[in-house]
Protein: DNA repair protein
Amino acid sequence: MHNHPSGDPSPSQADIQMTKAIIDIAKPLGIAVHDHIIVGKGGHASLRGMRLI
Structure:
């Protein structure tokens, strides 16, 4: 989870790529990444909810 100081909670390509990399690294260790939440002034975005992960 992190915030976007711009206020726009839309995930950037870097957010998506970094999350997928963390999922790939964590999986062999038995660690599950359930979601990546981005908070902005206008609300929040869930990568899982957006079906990006």
The first helix runs from residue 13 to 26. The chain has a mean pLDDT of 95. The CA atoms of residues 13 and 46 lie 14 Å apart. The chain is about 25% helix and 20% strand.
